[in-house]
Amino acid sequence: MNRRQFLALAALSGLASACGSSAESDPAAFRTRLQVPPLLEPKVDKDGTRRFALTMQRGRSEILAGKPVETWGFNGPYLGPTIRAARGDRVRMTVTNRLDEASTVHWHGMRLPAKMDGGPHQTIEPGATWNPHWTIDQPAATSWYHPHPHGQTAKHVYRGLAGMFIIDDGTTAELPARYGIDDIPLILQDKKLTEDGLPIGDPLKGTFGILGDHMLVNGTHAPFLNVRTERVRFRILNGSNARMYHLTFADRRTFHVVGNDAGLLPAPVQVDQVSLTPGERVEVVVTFTAGEQVLLRTISGSDDIDEGDFDLLKIVAEPRLAASPRLPSRLADPAPIVIPPNAKVRRFRLNGHDAINGKEMDMARIDEVVPAGATEIWEIENTVYAHNFHIHEVAFQVLDVDGEKPPAYASGHKDTVYVPPKSTVRLAVRFGHFTDPATPYMYHCHILRHEDSGMMGQFVIVPPGTENQVPRMITAHHM
Ligand code: C2O
Ligand code: CU
Ligand code: CU
Q: N or C: at which end does the chain have fewer Cβ atoms within 10 angstroms?
């Protein structure tokens, strides 16, 4: 008996289903059709600019049937529509804040000028509208957007403000790409739900903030999805505040990873499990057999942020499936990020949960000054418990984790990476060309409780040779 047969048998006999404690482990409990966020239709200006309108608003959602609770969303009560644009598109966002408090909207994974980034400096006051614009110029990828108001990100995201931002380019043609049919976003989030619904509580409590015990996919609790094609591409986003997922199917089937945060891999990588920390994305292609059912689940790991086995989504294949094209053996040609000789090495120490290199985030302090177009080594040392690390504006590749190469499925271009407890992760980071010595980008732990409490720093990108002329403090006037 091989391992797969053993696991299949174990699953049948209940041995492998440690998910027994929650009602969700019963496939029959997956009774609500998975919501798929609608695609946001742009208005196209005469000059071709595509204008997307987002409104941050309060609403009510029935996260558990029959128990509406207050949630926040973009253009609706929970989460936001999916934005889809292609490389070369000029985009213009109209972001209106109809909340009672200030927020921001950050385009996570987007390469754009710092003023358009939507970090903590680009505040949108209640009632105000923000109009960032840029030209999409990066490879096909699954990005996302979410608020980033300093100290409040955990609350705003937990209440529901997040959405996907899909970037296309000419290289995706052979992968399933029909949105909602064979190209499906899965936004994974965990919530604490009580009798009263979704108690927001204090997302800043505890070491990691909120770790929920109810799993939502695209805002749907205990969802099912009917698939109609042989192969389906899932764009999976960990949109949780703190939870790390180890995703696998109940029958341990293999599937292919085709993309990481910042773009497609050179070739599909076959796996039976992938791990995702908050903010990370992975694109996978899964093959189905007509008439079958299978559960997508997350299994416990060894950290505090990945405790618990939970089934997430029941996938039901129709009795007849439309044929899908074969998975291409070559996907994209992402030039590897090559470290130049004498590359600058910057070191970042994650200690506790509220500082980097011993310093708490300060909106007025520029921590790092990077010359435009640089490729550098960033070395992230984690001295205690689980963290991850996200850098705005860049694409990076993981060189090693404690000297070991990352798994093949995570070796592509990324913008967020897991930093295991007591380990050092080295990244080859490629910076962009938009310079602005007065407006910083962020780097931070994407466990939102940590980001909010100060595990974040700021860098500016400047014309090469001007690094030493940059003021290291931002005056209130500039903010
Ligand atoms: Cu997803 Cu600085 O954020
Ligand atoms: Cu970001
Ligand atoms: Cu952290």
A: N
Give the position of tokens 């993981």: 398
* Residue 214 beta carbon below 6 angstroms from any ligand 1 atom: no
Name the β-bridge partners of 379.
Answer: 347, 426
- The reply to whether 331 falls in a domain is no
Determine which residue's CA is closest to atom 1 belonging to ligand 1.
108
Q: Which amino acid is at 350?
A: L
Full residue range of the structural domain in which residue 216 is found: 3-26+174-322
Same domain, 148 and 279: no
For residues 188 and 311, state if they share a domain. Answer: yes
Distance 151 CA to ligand 1 centre (A): 13
> DSSP labels for 178-238?
-BTTTEEEEEEEEE--BTTB-----TT-TTTS---SEEEETTEESEEEEEEESEEEEEEEE
| pTM of the predicted model as reported, rounded to 2 decimal places | 0.94
Lowest-pLDDT range, 186-200, 366-380, 440-454, 462-476?
A: 186-200
Q: Whose CA is nearest to atom 3 of ligand 1?
A: 108
Does the Cβ of 243 fall within 6 Å of ligand 1? no
Indicate if ligand 1 lies below 6 Å from the C-beta of 50: no
Higher pLDDT: 49 or 479? It is 49
Answer for the pair 388, 462: CB distance below 8 angstroms, yes or no: no
Share of residues in the chain with pLDDT > 70 (%)? 91
340 inside domain: no
What is the tally of structural domains in the chain?
A: 3
For residue 395, the ligand closest to its alpha carbon is 2
Task: Give residue 308's pLDDT.
Answer: 94
Write down the pLDDT at residue 205.
75
Domain boundary among 322, 357, 378: 322
Residue 14 falls in which region: left (phi positive, over 0), alpha (psi -120 to 50) or beta: left
Residues 350 and 253 in one domain: no
Q: What is the CATH classification number for the domain harbouring 259?
A: 2.60.40.420
199-203, 313-317, 357-361, range with the lowest pLDDT: 199-203
Higher pLDDT, 214 or 63: 214
Neighbours of ion ligand 2 (CB under 5 A): 108, 392
**339 in a domain, yes or no?**
no
**Residue 209, ligand 1, Cβ within 6 A:** no
Instruction: Please indicate, yes or no, if residue 272 is contained in any of the structural domains.
Output: yes
Distance 390 CA to ligand 2 centre (A): 6
Could you write out the three-class secondary structure of 66-123? CEEEEEEEECCCCECCEEEEECCCEEEEEEEECCCCCECCEEECCCCCHHHCCCCCCC
Asked if 163 and 178 sit in the same domain, the reply is no
Shared domain for 351 and 382, answered yes or no, is: yes
Does ligand 1 come within 6 angstroms of the Cβ of 392? yes
In ligand 1, the atom with minimum distance to the C-alpha of 456 is 2
Q: How far is the CA of 209 from the centre of ligand 1 (A)?
A: 16
Per-residue pLDDT at 163:
98
Ligand index nearest the alpha carbon of residue 262: 2
**CA of 394 relative to ligand 2 center, distance in Å:** 9
In this structure, the answer to whether residues 455 and 359 fall within a common structural domain is yes
